[in-house]
Amino acid sequence: MMYDVIIIGGGVAGLMAAIEAKTDTNRVAIMTKGNIFKSNSALASGGINAVLDANDSGAIEQHIDDTLNGAYGLGDKKAISYMCERAPKIIKKLVDLGVQFDQDKQGHILQRGFGGTRSKRTCFVGDKTGAEITQVLIKTAKNMGIKFLVNHFVMNLTTLNHKISGVVAIRRFDSSVVVYPAKSVILAGGGYAGIYRGYSTNAQDYTGDLLAVALRMGLHLKDMEFVQFHPTGFVKTNYLVSEAARGEGGYLINSDGKRFVDELGARDVVSRAIMNQIENGKEVFLDLRHLSKALIETKLPSLYKTAYMQAGIDISQELLPIKPVAHYTMGGIETDMVNTDIDGLFACGECASNGVHGANRLGGNSLLEGIVFGEMSGKKALMYSEAKDFLPIDYSKVIKDIKLVDHIFDSDTTKNFNAMRVSLGKVMFENVGIKRDENGLVKAYDYISYLRSEVPTLHCVNKERSNNVELIAILELRNALEIAEAVILSALKRRESRGSHYRIDFPQNDDNEQQNIVVKELSKGQLRVWFKENPLLYKIRKWFSHH
Q1: What dotted CATH number matches 395-506?
Q2: 3-state percent helix, strand, coil for the chain, nearest multiple of 5
Q3: To which H or E segment does residue 265 belong?
Q4: Is 512 helix (H, G, I), strand (E, B) or coil?
Q5: Which among 29, 26, 4 has a CA at the least distance from the CA of 18?
Q6: Where are the domains of the chain?
Q7: With bands split at pLDDT 50, 70 and 90, how would you rate the model's confidence at 538?
Q8: 133, 148, 211, 115: which is closest to 18 by C-alpha?
Q9: Which of 439, 420, 541 is nearest to 480 (CA)?
């Protein structure tokens, strides 16, 4: 089937992009690796940031400033300003589509405080905001006639003369490699925190597949060293305890019963403070006992139920043990707002790096970013597709992908690739986690180099082609290792501490490194990493050099 626009990814960014791209006459499809209802967007429970009054320029400017400050000198003011200024209209659009944000008795949308902000601007639906928005957008997309191509694993994109021409994917129900011609394509497939398997709020299949595809396409990745660790995950299951719990007044206390950090500080600060407690032999707990049970059941219903089901704890009366977990990735495919260097190819949401978050994301800005730039991507993809014809498919690339799938099926293996995925997560958390140093980063790089050398020997034990989970797991591991290497090399390159990237051996900010780091694949398996001059910093240096 041929489509005018194909969106890869079913979170809020992809859904909004599809809604904006659809007309009464064109063909638009959303392609997802798994179930359409399963996305990180659906797990983003705390809320979405916005100044509700579009005419309150002072409040919007404060939102811009808070976001810039949270980016630790690496934020792109053009993108941030656009996002914050667009936010009031986005909330209105979501309400018009059917999102029922919590309201006061007068019918005004309620807002809570989130970390790193100077005012309450986070709109919410209890503690299930992302799930509510996602469900409304899915319903809207289906009613508009948007096609859902679920259970498709994207292997590559095809181009002609640096213009997009189609998507190559594995149809999971029969492991066939199929091609979908498209006039324009939007990448909205989420982040890569799943490479920290066992230490992440993400599902294990969030392995940065589209980032690996982008590298193979010759595109740049940016800010890959910046991985945000959420301060509060369940100790045993990594379930995300939304920042809403602290926004509603929850405390963080250690096993001595003492509060040790500003609960609504920036996430990198709070996560490091918790790790310091754990490293000093203390347990850390979320304390909600001083809040009324009625407030907890009203404002934090999902947490209340899940804590009891997963941990056997009544949070209205008992302390909840927590730990930091890998949660969100600021790095991604380098874009100018949503444009990539390939004509007709756009990127938005967590898989893109447009400079909105810089070195550290503010809570509540991720849903906003996804929807704002998903909207922009959809509009641009529609305009591009209306002015273009379908291009021929380069089947030489498709044949290579078919041969790779056949190779994975055709031989036997003695290696346990699932064990490799688990060990990758452990090594990444221990050496490329909340605290880093050169010795640990080099150790992680050496281990990942070893795993990459083993990849060609991995094959499916089960040779059935129907819904073969082993095939996808092996391909995900290939991608995860490439993305992990990009993270490590970027972390080694940045010899300072900035935002979510904390080097024990370089604990201070270095003004000379107030620049983005970019990654490019020079040849198969060979990555180049370099600083990309910050335009403002470049102008300042140039001025000083001439005076």
Answers
A1: 1.20.58.100
A2: 40, 20, 40
A3: none
A4: helix
A5: 29
A6: 229-325, 395-506
A7: very low
A8: 148
A9: 420
Structure tokens at 341: 């260097």
Q: Tokens for 227?
A: 């991985």
Q: Residue 330: beta bridge partners?
A: none
- Angle subtended by helix axes 365-386 and 129-143, to nearest 10: 20
Encoded tokens for 206: 């969030």
Average predicted confidence (pLDDT) for the chain: 94
> How far apart (Å, rounded) are the C-alpha atoms in residues 421 and 351?
21
Q: Are 484 and 193 in contact (CB under 8 A)?
A: no
Phi-psi category of residue 111: left, alpha or beta, with phi > 0 → left and psi -120 to 50 → alpha: beta
Residue 338 is encoded by which pair of tokens?
């949503």
Give the pLDDT score at 543.
52
Report the b/e string of 386-420 with b at 16+ CB within 10 A: eeeeebebbeebbeebbebbeebbeeeeeeebeeb
**176-187/163-171 β-pairing:** antiparallel
pTM of the model: 0.93
Specify the pLDDT at position 151: 96
Q: Which of 267, 272, 478, 503 is catalytic?
A: 267
Catalytic residue list contains 27:
no
Question: Which of 85-89, 239-243, 395-399 bottoms out in mean pLDDT, i.e. has the lowest?
Answer: 239-243
Task: Decide: residue 438, CB within 10 A, 0-12 exposed, 13-18 middle, 19+ buried.
Answer: middle
Query: With bands split at pLDDT 50, 70 and 90, how would you rate the model's confidence at 536?
Result: low
Tens digits of per-residue pLDDT, 198-210? Answer: 999 888 888 999 9
Of the candidate CATH numbers 3.80.30.20, 3.50.50.60, 3.90.700.10, 3.40.50.150, the domain formed by 229-325 belongs to: 3.90.700.10
Q: What angle do CA 340, 93, 345 make, to 5 degrees?
A: 15
Q: Which of 136, 114, 226, 155 is nearest to 487 (CA)?
A: 226
- Spatial contact of 342 and 209, defined as CB atoms under 8 Å apart: no
Q: Tokens representing 293? A: 């049970």
